[in-house]
User: Fold this.
Amino acid sequence: MKPHFACSVAVVFFLVIFIAPSLILSYETTAPIDYNQLDLPAGVVGPESIAFDCQGKGPYVGVSDGRILKWQGEQLGWTEFAIISAKRNREVCDGSNNPNSEPICGRPLGLKFNLATCDLYIADAYFGLLMVEPLGGMAKQLATSAEGVPFRFTNALDINSKTGEVYFTDTSIFFQRRVWELAIISGDRTGRLMKYEPRTKKVNVLLKGLAFPNGVALSKDNSFLLLAESGTYQILRFWLGGSKSYSSQVFAQLERSPDNIKINNKGEFWVALNSGREIANLGNMNVIQWWVKDPVAAKFDEEGNVVRILDGKSGNALDSVSEVEEYNGSLWIGSAVKPYVVVVKT
Assistant:
């Protein structure tokens, strides 16, 4: 399967120069550039999250039929790397994009390799926290509940490769992914941030009462993590060490709903801004003003300053961005609904 080239997007660079009470930004716009589009196998959609293994191979993505796929280059295209459950019915599931089949087929969302072990960790919306060994195959189920409450909508994760601890989100204890809109409409605040301890195999709840918790990413020194709370358009900083340990604060108030968060090798955070074109901002004076009409992702430094914006230019290609992974000189862009991965050279 060969990728093909399509229309252009523009990458916009921002420099923070003043904050009072909202960010006032100066920016430089690069010339439009072509992007590379890696089409998924027929029928499947939604490469929600993107991961690269210990050898830099990939990307790996989870898709709508419950499989983890690996990109093998232009000649081989996408190949199957792992499946979620032994009970998965291939006749029903392979090639499916039917949300009602997700409880049977699985729906892998967050992906991350532990660089110390080369194991792939998966947050599956229905099967909980999973792990796949380096050669792929059948996923092993690690956790399905915390404090006696089953996971209902396991969403995103990150890993401390030094300790093996996995930080992840459960978006709601009531609503599954296939009816995610109900969690937003109802104002549900039952989401949780949790930590899986590999030595004890126990799950600890770190935060409760969250409004659609979504992406999570550890800082470069593991002293804190960032958490996307999609229901409030906020990014929270949760401290893991020091005098503020196990406390949280608002890191950024956004004008669009945040999705996944990924850190780059400089310690900067890419936040995907998903499903926001049709929604007006919250009217909060502290909302970041982007100064572009269609911000689909933003990169923040550790202090909460916006250092770069990805402008979707109101086109179809980037109208649903779930994740931006900055890797090997490119931005690898995922989506919850599109049948492809977008690659933009930086």
Q: What stands out?
A: The CA atoms of residues 239 and 247 lie 6 Å apart. The chain has a mean pLDDT of 89.
